């Protein structure tokens, strides 16, 4: 780890673990899909361990539940679920109204060439209201969904950084980071068009990507992210970037290869490790549909979360010259400090696993 630019001890390059860092996010390959045909669930879980659900709900949340769990679900359906659903909807609508009022007479930043639009650089009282209100509202969400949350923050080296780097386990990660630092995220382009959420994402300053695009869009988005990271490092009033370099979610026990987009700016980064201890339902969004995941999450009486903030990581000159090495070393640090297993699979393999599971369930 490099907490000080003058004290560096970079880890040697591991080409095997980074050979896929800069690959596009592909659809499942039909030839590879065919190789999973006929495999047992045990074989699939060994091959795609980073996406395997280990809770009582089983693969895709469709496992056979014990009677006790069925009773608990029944109780939660008539008590917790309605309350949590209504509260979440109220918070979403209230925050949308706040964002709408604060942006009424403000023109968004537009990049027609990259099809980007946001209010990230909106300043003054408008920005303050948007930030403070989301902190208060997400505190209510935490009380509602994550009453047991523990943070471990290392306050050393609190100099200006370029980006916050986090492992990715669930959409709950975004809610946590929104309340902790109100950063800008990278999101699917379709998010910008969603009712309510679209405007909120623009106020966050999200950078939108088209995951399935095979055009030069990826290069353009990478350039925007790099510029944002540099700006955040050099300008204290610029919005911070929050990036999930794995590119997709895992079950929380693994760390996938890092893509290099967060490290191209060669700016210092702040690694954050998120964990969700559980006994019944895992909040990890790995091999389960979004609607079913939200339902089970609302049914869980208590959800636990742990956040570990590591010191700011300053890249050595060698790492600045080689973003893949920089990404690899930060990944190794996070895996070591978070007791996470490094895996060399990615989003393409996740889709193959999901396709295979759909054939079994």
Automatic annotation (TrEMBL):
Pathway: Lipid metabolism
Residue ranges of the TM segments: 71-98, 129-146
CDD domains found in the cross-reference section: LPLAT_LPCAT1-like (cd07991)
GO biological process terms, semicolon-separated: phospholipid biosynthetic process
Pfam assignment, any one: Acyltransferase
Keyword terms: Acyltransferase, Lipid biosynthesis, Lipid metabolism, Membrane, Phospholipid biosynthesis, Phospholipid metabolism, Transferase, Transmembrane, Transmembrane helix
Subcellular location: Membrane
InterPro entries reported in the protein's UniProt record: LPCAT1-like, Plipid/glycerol_acylTrfase
Domain Phospholipid/glycerol acyltransferase: 162-277
Bias (Basic and acidic residues) ranges: 1-30
GO CC annotation terms, alphabetical: endoplasmic reticulum; membrane
Major subcellular site: membrane
One example GO MF annotation: O-acyltransferase activity
Region of interest: Disordered: 1-40
SMART domains: PlsC
PANTHER family: LYSOPHOSPHOLIPID ACYLTRANSFERASE LPEAT1, PHOSPHOLIPID ACYLTRANSFERASE
Family note: Belongs to the 1-acyl-sn-glycerol-3-phosphate acyltransferase family.
Protein name: PHOSPHOLIPID ACYLTRANSFERASE
Gene source species: Salix viminalis (Common osier)
């Amino acid at each position: 780890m490099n907490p000080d630019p003058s004290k560096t001890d970079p880890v040697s390059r591991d080409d095997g673990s980074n050979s896929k860092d800069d690959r596009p996010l592909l659809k499942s390959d039909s030839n590879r899909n065919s190789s999973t045909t006929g495999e047992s669930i045990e074989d699939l879980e060994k091959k795609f361990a980073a996406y395997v659900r280990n809770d009582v709900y089983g693969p895709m949340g469709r496992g056979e539940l014990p009677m006790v769990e069925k009773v608990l679900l029944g109780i939660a359906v008539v008590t917790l679920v309605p309350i949590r659903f209504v509260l979440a909807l109220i918070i979403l609508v209230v925050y949308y109204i706040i964002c709408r009022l604060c942006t009424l007479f403000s023109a968004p930043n537009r990049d027609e060439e990259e099809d980007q639009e946001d209010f990230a650089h909106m300043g003054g009282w408008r920005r303050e209201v948007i930030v403070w209100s989301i902190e208060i509202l997400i505190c209510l969400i935490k009380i509602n969904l994550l009453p047991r949350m523990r943070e471990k923050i290392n306050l050393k080296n609190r100099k200006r950084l370029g980006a916050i780097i986090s492992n990715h386990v669930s959409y709950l990660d975004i809610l946590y980071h929104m309340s902790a630092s109100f950063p800008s995220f990278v999101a699917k382009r379709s998010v910008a068009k969603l009712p309510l959420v679209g405007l909120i994402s623009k106020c966050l300053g999200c950078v939108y990507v088209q995951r399935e695009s095979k055009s030069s869009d990826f290069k353009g988005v990478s350039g925007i992210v790099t510029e944002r990271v540099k700006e955040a490092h050099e300008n204290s009033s610029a919005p911070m970037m929050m990036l999930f370099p794995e590119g997709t979610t895992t079950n929380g026990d693994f760390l996938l290869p890092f893509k290099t987009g967060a490290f191209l700016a060669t700016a210092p980064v702040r690694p954050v490790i998120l964990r969700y201890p559980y006994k019944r339902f895992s909040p990890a969004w790995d091999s389960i549909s979004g609607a079913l995941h939200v339902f089970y999450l609302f049914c869980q009486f208590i959800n636990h979360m742990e956040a570990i903030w590591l010191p700011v990581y300053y890249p050595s000159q060698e790492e600045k010259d080689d973003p893949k090495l920089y990404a690899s070393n930060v990944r190794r640090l996070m895996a070591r400090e978070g007791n996470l297993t490094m895996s060399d699979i990615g989003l393409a393999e996740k889709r193959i696993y999901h396709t295979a599971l759909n054939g079994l369930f």
